[in-house]
């Protein structure tokens, strides 16, 4: 399976570069905790595993557990702050609800997507096994609950960080289906991390590079098997799919579907946190109201609305993008320092962004449209 190959790539890289005096079980014992195991039921691609449209259905199931474990391994290779940094990477998504960012669209917050997870600290505080492990490893809880303190793991757009990098590569391999495994492996091997720029020439007038000098930042560089252009094309594939009319419409309607079933009492917010996505779907399918779900997942067409017929929505989602620092001309620099219009040419997203201001409609039945209309938060 592709997922096994992809996960093995991260794991093998970890073992290849693992220092001899470090015990791998120090990190891996945390994988078996109930908090981490719960993430096996949460997909990386926000419930798209259940839809039938070929463009949006991932070729394989990649879970939040897979994603977090891979970040934990990667942070062990590129990080410089030891086990706390690795665990911060591992735990960064433990607050995820079933269907992930659909919960933002459910609240009408698709543009920000900032309030759809429980706090990492609140989740870890409920897991006695993790707390005991942290005590044994002499690690403070506060050192592992905020990944934003580690620039390797999380850094504001347009910087590349581990969380964003795995989002890009896993999307290209599993969801957008634009790359095969070997191509993704080549891109993975382009990645690196610079903890600071001491001894390296940088532009003192660049706020971006000065921040990298101060806090560190992931970067990319040409390899024998791949060039900088290849990585930027992957970023474009990732961003374009998220901005596509199909992705935007399905996410908006998915939020309405969850509101509909939650109001019927089939599940609560607590259930969305503790239960896996398949468990939630099974509750829907076993109810007498499954027709809305069936109609939704079999939707096959989305188009720009020219009238008010159907379930018409406006969807302006959070724009997910990256513009990594690159090694070029014997120094770390921003991409435009190598080629002036290079970034803009490889990431022609302006048309896609402009289209987010146009209303969308899909081929849902009249019955489903009527039932979901009351939850439509974006019609004007």
Which descriptors apply to this entry?
two-stranded antiparallel ribbon, 380 residues, globular, Hypothetical protein af1432, 46% helix, mainly alpha, 19 helices
Q: Could you describe the 3D structure shown?
A:
Helices cover 46% and strands 6% of the residues. It has 380 residues and is mainly α. It has one domain: Hypothetical protein af1432, CATH 1.10.3210. Strands 1-2-4-5 form a four-stranded mixed β-sheet. It has a two-stranded antiparallel ribbon with strand order 3-6. Strand 4 and strand 5 (331-333) form a beta hairpin.
List the helices and strands and how they pair.
Elements: H1 2-17, H2 25-28, H3 34-38, H4 64-78, H5 83-91, H6 102-106, H7 120-124, H8 128-136, H9 162-175, H10 181-188, E1 191-194, H11 207-215, E2 217-220, H12 228-243, H13 245-263, H14 269-274, H15 277-285, H16 290-297, E3 302-304, E4 325-328, E5 331-333, H17 342-346, H18 350-355, E6 360-362, H19 366-372
Parallel strand pairs: 2-4
Antiparallel strand pairs: 1-2, 3-6, 4-5
Helix pairs in contact: 1-4, 4-5, 4-9, 9-10, 9-12
Question: What level of helicity do the residues show?
Answer: 40-55%
**Number of contiguous helices:** 19
The proportion of strand residues reads: 5-15%
- Give the overall shape, derived from the CA principal axes: globular
Between the first and last Cα atoms, what is the distance in angstroms? 44 Å
Which CATH class applies here? Mainly Alpha
The main sheet orders its strands as 1-2-4-5
Low-confidence stretches: 337-343
- Give the count of structural domains: 1
In terms of structural class, how would the helical and strand content be classed? mainly alpha
Second rung of CATH, namely the architecture: Orthogonal Bundle
């Amino acid at each position: 399976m592709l997922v096994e190959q992809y996960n093995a790539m991260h794991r093998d890289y970890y073992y290849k570069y693992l220092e001899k005096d470090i015990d791998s079980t120090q990190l891996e014992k945390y994988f078996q905790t109930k908090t981490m195991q719960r993430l096996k039921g949460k997909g990386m691609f926000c419930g798209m595993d259940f839809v039938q449209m070929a463009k949006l259905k991932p070729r394989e199931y990649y879970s939040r557990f897979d994603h977090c474990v891979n970040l934990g391994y990667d942070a062990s290779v590129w990080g410089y702050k030891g086990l706390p940094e690795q665990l911060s990477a591992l735990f960064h998504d433990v607050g995820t609800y079933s269907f992930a960012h659909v919960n933002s669209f459910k609240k009408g917050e698709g543009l920000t997507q900032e309030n759809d997870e429980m706090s990492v600290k609140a989740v870890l505080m409920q897991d006695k096994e993790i707390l005991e492990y942290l005590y044994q490893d002499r690690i403070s809880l506060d050192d592992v609950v905020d990944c934003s303190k580690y620039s390797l793991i999380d850094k504001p757009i347009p910087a590349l960080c581990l969380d964003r990098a795995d989002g890009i590569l896993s999307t290209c391999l599993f969801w957008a289906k634009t790359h095969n495994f070997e191509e993704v492996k080549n891109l993975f091997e382009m990645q690196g991390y610079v903890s600071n720029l001491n001894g390296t020439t940088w532009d003192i007038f660049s706020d971006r590079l000065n921040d990298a000098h101060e806090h560190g930042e992931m970067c990319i560089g040409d390899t024998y098997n791949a060039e900088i252009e290849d990585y930027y094309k992957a970023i474009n594939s990732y961003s374009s799919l998220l901005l596509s009319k199909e992705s935007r419409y399905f996410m908006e309607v998915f939020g309405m579907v969850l509101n509909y079933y939650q109001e019927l009492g089939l599940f609560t917010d607590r259930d969305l946190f503790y239960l896996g996505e398949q468990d939630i779907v099974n509750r829907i399918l076993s109810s007498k109201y499954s027709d809305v779900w069936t109609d939704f997942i079999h939707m096959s067409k989305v188009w720009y609305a020219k009238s008010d017929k159907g379930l018409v929505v406006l969807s302006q989602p959070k724009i997910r993008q990256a513009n990594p620092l690159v090694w070029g001309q014997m120094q770390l620099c921003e991409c435009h320092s190598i080629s002036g219009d290079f970034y803009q040419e490889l990431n022609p997203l302006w048309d896609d962004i402009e289209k987010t201001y146009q209303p969308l409609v899909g081929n849902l039945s009249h019955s489903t449209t009527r039932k979901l209309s009351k939850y439509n938060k974006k019609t004007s």
